[in-house]
Every structure is written in C-alpha cells, then in structure tokens.
Amino acid sequence: MNQFLIFIKKEFLHIWRDKRTLFILLGMPIVQIIIFGFALTNEVKNARIAVLDFSKDPTTQSIIAELEASRYFEVERTISSYQQIETAFKSGHIKLAVVFPGEFAQDMAHLNKATVQLVADASDPNVANTLTNYASAIIMDYQQRITDQRKLPYTITTEMRMLYNPQLKGAFNFVPGVMAMVLLLVCTMMTAITIVKEKEMGTMEIMLVSPMKPILIVLAKAVPYLVLSIVNISSILLLSVYVLEMPINGSLLLLVSVSILFTLVSLSLGLLISAGAGSQQTAMFISLVALFLPTVMLSGFMFPVENMPLPLRMVSNIVPAKWYYSIVKAVMIKGLGFNAIWKETLVLTGMMIVFLGLAIKKFKIRLA
Amino acid sequence: MLAVKADNLVKNYGKKASAVKALKGISFEVQPGELFGIIGPDGSGKTSLFRILTTLLLADEGTASVDGFDVVKDFKQIRERVGYMPGKFSLYPDLSVAENLEFFATIFDTSIEENYDLIRDIYVQIEPFRDRKAGKLSGGMKQKLALSCALIHRPSVLFLDEPTTGVDSVSRKEFWAMLKTLQTKGISILVSTPYMDEAAQCDKVALLQDGNVLTINTPAEIVKNFDGKIYGFRAANMLHLLNELKGLNEVQSAYPSGIYHNAVMAEDRLPSVLSKLKMDHPLDLEQVELTPTIEDCFMALMK
Predict the structure, then answer these.
(1) Which among A11, A57, B280, B292 could disulfide-bond with B226, CB atoms 3.0 to 4.6 Å apart, if both were Cys?
(2) What's the complex ipTM?
(3) Residue B293's domain spans which residues?
(4) Residue B166 and residue B195: Cα distance in Å, rounded?
(5) Residue of A10, A202, A366 lying closest to B58 (CB–CB)
(6) pLDDT at residue A145 above 60?
(7) Nearest residue in A to B135, CA atom
(8) pLDDT tens digits for B174-205?
(9) Segments of A207-339 assigned E as strands
C-alpha cells in the first residue's frame, strides 16, 4: 500500500512540476468552452433581413414587430420592392427577405389561412436554413397565440424539430462534445504518454527490477489523471452553467457519475495504448489518430450519426465518446434519469472492462 | 551458493536470418562477496547479459541463476533481492535527490533510516544537494545518487552496468573505492565497464568480445600469463611510426597507448626492430621496455 501511495505522490509531483503541461491540461477545457461558446457557434445573431409588406395591416405589423424584437434579426426598412431585394441579396446586404402578399390580412380573416414567403440567401445553406427556421418559428408562435385568443376550433401546428432547444442554442450541442473531447485527451493521451515516458527514460527498467507489482504501477499512473479529470469536469460544468447559461436539467450526481465512468474508459484505453507503444511520439500519434479524430467525427458532436452511411454508423458504435455524448445530452439537456441511459452506461462499463483487462494482460513484465 | 551463475547464455535480436548475435554462449560464476568485472568494448554484449541476469530479458538458450534463483522461473524472488543500476541515468530528473531516494526506498518496501548505514558514505557526499533536482546534478553526483537508490534496500547482489561511463577520473576512482567498501558489507557486485584499466580493481574479471568470453581470471593471473615482450616507441611522426610498427614481421601487434606506441613481440627482437625503424627516424626514436599492464593483456587477447 505504501508503494502504491508513494507512486501516486510521485506522479502528482511530475504533473505539478511540469507547469506548462499542467496549464494546458487545466486550461484546455476552459479555452475550448469559451471558443466554442462565443466564437465557433452556428447560431446566427443580428442577421439583416428585409420585410416586404404589401398588406400593411395590424397582423403583418405585429409579426414584423415580433421579428424585430428577436435578437436574431435586424429589419432593414429601406427596401420596398422586389428589385431592391434582389440587389440587396447580390451585394450580401441581407440574408433573408420576408414577403407578405397583399391579400394576407383578408386570407387570414376569411380562410383562417395565409401564406408568407421567406426568401433566403442559400449560398450558405446552413445560415439560410437556420434563418428560415427562426423566422417560421416566430411566425408560427404568433399564429398560435392569435389562434388561442380567438378560440377557433382548430390550430395549425408545424413539426419544428427544435425540441429541448427552442432557441437552437449551439451550447447545448457542443458542451457534451467538449466534455468528451477534453476527458479523452487528458486521460487517454496523457496516461499513454506518461507510461511510455518511463520506458523511454529507462526508469521502467528499474521499476521492473523491483518488488512492485506491474498492476500497481499501471493503476498508480491512472489515479492523478482521474483527479485532474474531475477538476476538468467541474470547470466545464461551472462554465456552461454560469457563463453560457446552459441549465443542467437532470441529476448532477448522475451526470458526474457517468462522466467518471467515461474517464475510467479513457484511462483504460490510455493504458492499453501505452502497453503497445514504444515511444512518446507513437503513443501521441495513436491517441490522436485512433481516438481524437473518431471522437470529433463519429460521436455525433460535429455531424449527426443518423445521417451517416451504415458502415460509418457501425464504426461509430465502437467510439466510446458516442455513447458518452448521448448520455450527457440525455441527462444534461433533456433531464432524463438513469432508466433512459442504462444501455449506454452498460456499453461504457463493458468497454472499460475489456480495455483494462487487455491493458493488464499486455503489460510487459520484461523489456522485450 | 553462488551469487551469480551463467551457463551457456545465448541471445539473438531480430529475425532468424539476419539476427544480431549479442551473446554466443556465455558461462561464468560469481562467488558470494566477490567484485566481478565484465570488461568489454561497446557492443560486446555487456548490457544484454546484465538484462538477462536481472530478469529483464529472456535468453534464447542457456540458464542463469542469481542467489540460487532461476532468472526465468523465480524472477519475482530475484527482483526482491537484487540492486540494479542501468547504464543510462535512470532516476527521475524532476524529483529532488531526497525524493528520488525516498521513492526507491518505499518501492522496495523499506525506509531510508533502516538501511542508512549502508549508503551513508556515498549519500553524505550528495546530501548537501538533497533538495536539488536530480536532472541538475553533475555526472558524478548522478552516479552516486543512482548507486544510493540501487543500494537502499540492502540487495544481496548488485548489478552495475557501466557505472563509470561518462564520469571524470577522480569520481571514477572514488566510485571504485565505494564498491570495495560495499564488498566488505557482504554484497556481491557484478560490474561492467569498457575501461580496461578498471579491471585491476576487480577480484576477478571476464573479458567479453563480440558475445564471447575471451578469458576469466584474476587481474594478477591475467598479467602473469602474458606471453612475450612489450616495448614502447615514440618519435616525432607518430602516425608514420605506428604504420611502420604494424608492418614489421617481428611485431605481433602495435597500438597507441599514452605517449608511446606499444609493440608486442613473441620474443625479444628489439635490435632488429630498432635497426629497421632507425632508417626512417634516425634522430628522434626513443624506446622503453614496459611491464605488461592488464590493458596490454587484453589487447593481446583480443587479437
């Protein structure tokens, strides 16, 4: 036991004395959250739009007022004809045009149904898509309200696929992704590198010619990174709640527990890599290529897994981050309990057992 | 019971056809309490041999035991009782002197206080720097710290792989003196070195070349068994002189050694050698008869 404790103490000293690495390990999640939260967002704010109102009645006026009131749009009032819209689009001055036909108010009053035309600059399809979604959501919202007021026998509903994130906040998507990425980087890459470093420095040689059990060496290496990861989980959660104003809808305890489970999976993976890698470069390369890229690409964080072709969807199943990502989304955003995530939790637990078992089995008790 | 016994050890690296033969059947025995030297140039197989004996590598053929324990079967027992200092400085450079020592003491399930008497003579020299990082120590200091760490658990057999490589000559002398002191405390020591002049410090030496043992004997016996005469020559043009010596029939071998070129002859043929050399070096040729040193014996054996 003493052996184990002094080994952990030694690992902490290594980390503590390498201030630059420590700074990166603890600063990375903070920087990532801030960059993703404020800079790399696919939210569109203050987009200039044109409104062409041929109807000019109270209904259209209040819809325009609603559009203007939202922080997504800034209504450009100088435009009053189709020709001007076209020039404004071409010069890139506006991103979207809302056109109310002349018979809008009439249709609304007599047919209970009216059309609004949304013209978007689709040279950037994502922005166009987001803007039309915002605009129709606002219009739909308005429509619903007046329908309620008039107590008419039917209501028009449109499926908007914006459940749980009505404002399409980007943060809801990337916070779980950043958590998966940071934990994976800190745990997998750092553990893999630190064990291989001992091999490179030759200290592993002395360590092997000692009564210390190899399994204790391996486990002692993992403990400090587990602690570091818990610090990182806390800083990510604090930042997302207090800076990005993102609520934690589910149980905090459950969220932290599954995060620790994912940390353990990453640690085991790091240990497994270190057992096979001969140099720090190899360990880093394997961690980056075999883990980091699949995590970014296949976990559903950047690109939805559902849209991928079948082979990629199958590959995504062996990416631990995919399971963690959906757990975090379920618990943090949708506020679901354990019975909604037991399957994912089981998969992660299984992965951890397999990785750790392989790592211990592959740990060399000799040099070659 | 023997401290170390190696029996026909063979070690190859790489695939069958292009394998590098590091050890080609090495056998020797080390008595308890003996200071045994493995002398050989770089690439002669010293480190492979040490790694097999410290259970870090498996031999392809042959058997070996340390303190009566088999290096393959009983590797756990061996790991508990030997001290090993690899050739490369292998302590933690970012930990201080005291932290390194404490770490290794604890890893070996002991404490600094428990075995302080064993390392005191060595450790007092580095104690003034106890809070300095190991990576910032000088070469000689690093060696002393590494030796302290290898000794802290009172091993019965100490394996030192090239402990004096890269250390200045004063520190090397001190280091050998320390080994002699340790010997008196009942520790068997197996030490390797590429410096032949250090062989004289050992009780017994094995000369290794290309994975073969050339000879095993006490330093005194090796010198006594030297066959032939040895002279040192010098002149203004030393390079020319060496080539000339190598070309002479009377001379078995010639090699530079200090200010002289040493020439070994099977019997005393000095007059005929001198007459030939005088032609090219009429004015400045000097010669001196030398008593063979252990280096000369090794040079002769390695021919």
Answers:
(1) B292
(2) 0.81
(3) 226-301
(4) 11
(5) A366
(6) yes
(7) A201
(8) 889 989 988 998 899 999 998 888 888 899 99
(9) none
